[in-house]
Amino acid sequence: MTAPDYPLMALGSYETYQLAHIATYIAERLGRHHRSGRGRDGRAARAEAVRDIAGAATALGNATGRSIPERDLPRTLDTDTFTAAQQLLATGPRSADVVALAGTGQTGFAVVGHVPGLGAVGARAESRDIADALHAHFLTRPSSELAPWAVTRDPQRVPTLPQQVDLAAFVEHLDPIRDDDRAVARNLRGHDRRTDAAIRGRFAGVDLDAPAVVTPPATPSDPAPRRVARPRRPAAPKVNGRAPGIHRPPGQSAAAPTVPTTIAGP
Predict the structure, then answer these.
(1) 65-118: per-residue pLDDT in tens?
(2) Helices (H), the chain
(3) Could you tell me whether strands 95-100 and 109-115 are parallel, antiparallel, or unpaired per DSSP bridges?
């Protein structure tokens, strides 16, 4: 492995990765909600983000076996909370640790880490199982997938979520190529028949139960082997300026000799 940012080869369980992928989906949508324009200009973007957060929150509740209030949804750490949690820990070039926030007067847990090329990453979660899942996530996933967890300057606020959301319509906006979206869809199966039908259609041909796979970064291919030039065989020597072979008197045709049709006796 030559890429300095390649994560540690320490994979969590399949259930752990499901929790981390769903939490990352929520964090990415929270970021969209925060970046949306204020007032009427950002209304559509905020509504779309709220819909996605609500759908993913349902998937997270199904995955954990309990309903998670919106105030307890996992979200990115702000700078102040990150700094307070980091004072309890020593971090290395690529690191992630879980610490209880009770010492700062807050509830839940903080996942504090550092990823080369991305910088400080952090998450807060009310439950230890989600915090542990994100801990493994920070240590094993490429930095490009951890961008939603980059520490923010101000605390993230979870918007008020609707009591009900059209999960079948939500599923139509999931991307079958993305690991986070597949984890959300997997944990929405069995919620109701309409949602199941939407999942089967949207994720046709996709094995939602396949284990997560970390693909090593591409490395430059080995140079093609050099072709060994064989020495040319020297030409056969000529005799009197002619190539060796059958010598005929001058004037004789070079055509092949003919075989007589009769046999002369002695």
Answers:
(1) 888 999 999 999 999 998 888 765 544 578 899 999 999 999 999 999 998 888
(2) 14-35, 43-64, 79-86, 128-140, 167-171, 179-186, 193-202
(3) antiparallel
